[in-house]
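ok, trying the design again with the full structure, not the truncated one.
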């Protein structure tokens, strides 16, 4: 029974019994009216209570719907994949996810994944730097030259700090416009482009002014995934774009780097980008140390890409410490690839050699050909490579320089070019 408000009171004792018939009828009529009034009041109060409950539930549902719309969260959101350990300094207000439209013309792409690194976009890392003065991207004459030689890909380093200056916000679209000029031109020539954030396993957080170590700092891992969600969204309509997750992480353990990289792979797929992802390891992603660094153990049996479109990117130089800082080549340097090749084969994976090079020193005369022979003899495992390097601002006398001595006729190729062309 519904309790009536205390303000409604009936003095039943005031109703007196009178023996006359008319009085009895009057009394009965009065009692009926009283009961009717009580019933109507109870009905009104009950209805009010029910309406109050319904309105409260409707208001709550509306509030939840508004919150979901505002933050853009859903069970399929990238947030469910990587923002599980988000810190108090972060924000869930993810904004600025935009895509370049599908290109109006998509030519047949060159059928090889071999070419140069074209360096310059990564120079002088940080915001506030001037394009064309502090850093530069590849020129059309460089791209034309490598296409004419038969190469099908370039690896384009860039600075993630300039590309993604504000955490959990949109990309720097001015910076993106510089990169898009290269991507569009390469597409017009049928050439692939590896987008390579050249930041060595860290990401800058301008809110606190620190470089966060991806995979060690949970917020750094979250920022890295959000960056790749933006990049994946932006370029998902470009068939010539490949995603190189990061250049040469080295301050993390292999397991820590796995922890930092895996959410970014998920983020790229969550926004609908299906292009090839190049996954590096830690320890400068060296092929020679792939086993000893723990990379092999950390990534063994990896199946975290829902569309299984990934390769492992490794780097390997031919000098004594595999650093690429010495002119001389060590003997039997092709052996540095063997353990990594075996691991890739055992796991059913493919590899990509993102950086390699040797100088014109006589110690490299036999080592360079043997190195490329190994890659070509295992082309079912090593899907491609990019030589380090070319680039409009690299000095002409750099020992690994692959750009021609001059782009004016007659073009004079570098010494290493002839051997590379034999392995296209």
């Amino acid at each position: 029974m519904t309790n009536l408000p205390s303000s409604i009171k009936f003095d039943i004792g005031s109703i007196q019994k009178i023996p006359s018939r008319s009085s009895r009828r009057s009394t009965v009529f009065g009692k009926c009216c009283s009961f009717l009034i009580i019933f109507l009041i109870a009905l009104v109060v009950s209805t009010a209570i029910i309406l109050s409950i319904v309105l409260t539930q409707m208001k709550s549902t509306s509030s939840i719907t508004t919150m979901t719309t505002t933050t853009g969260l859903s069970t399929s959101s990238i947030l469910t994949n990587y923002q599980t350990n988000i810190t108090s300094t972060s924000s869930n207000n993810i904004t600025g996810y935009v895509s370049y439209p599908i290109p109006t013309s998509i030519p047949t792409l060159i059928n090889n994944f071999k070419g140069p690194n074209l360096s310059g976009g990564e120079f002088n890392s940080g915001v506030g730097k001037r394009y064309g003065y502090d850093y530069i991207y590849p020129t059309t004459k460089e791209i034309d030259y490598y296409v004419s030689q038969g190469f099908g890909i370039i690896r384009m380093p860039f600075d993630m700090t300039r590309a993604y200056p504000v955490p959990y916000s949109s990309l720097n679209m001015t910076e993106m416009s510089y990169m898009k000029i290269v991507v569009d031109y390469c597409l017009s020539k049928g050439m692939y482009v590896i987008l390579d954030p050249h930041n060595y396993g860290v990401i800058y957080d301008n809110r606190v002014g620190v470089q966060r170590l991806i995979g060690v700092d949970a917020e750094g891992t979250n920022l890295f995934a959000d960056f790749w969600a933006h990049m994946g969204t932006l370029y998902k309509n470009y068939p010539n774009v490949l995603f190189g997750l990061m250049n040469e992480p080295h301050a993390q353990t292999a397991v820590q780097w796995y922890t930092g990289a895996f959410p970014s792979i998920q983020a790229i797929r969550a926004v609908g980008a299906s292009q090839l992802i190049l996954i590096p390891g830690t320890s400068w992603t060296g092929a020679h140390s792939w086993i000893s660094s723990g990379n092999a153990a950390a990534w063994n049996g990896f199946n975290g890409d829902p569309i299984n479109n990934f390769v492992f990117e490794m780097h390997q130089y031919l000098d004594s410490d595999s650093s690429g800082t010495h002119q001389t080549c060590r003997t039997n340097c092709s052996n540095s690839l063997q353990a990594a090749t075996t691991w890739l084969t055992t796991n059913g994976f493919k590899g990509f050699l993102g950086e390699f090079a040797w100088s014109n020193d006589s110690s490299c005369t036999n080592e360079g050909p043997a190195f490329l022979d190994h890659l070509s003899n295992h082309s079912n495992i090593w899907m491609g490579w990019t030589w380090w390097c070319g680039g409009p601002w690299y000095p002409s006398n750099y020992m690994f320089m692959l750009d021609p001595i001059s782009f004016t006729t007659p073009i004079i190729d570098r010494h290493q070019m002839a051997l590379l062309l034999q392995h296209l």
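Keeping the full-length input from now on. The chain is about 35% helix and 15% strand.
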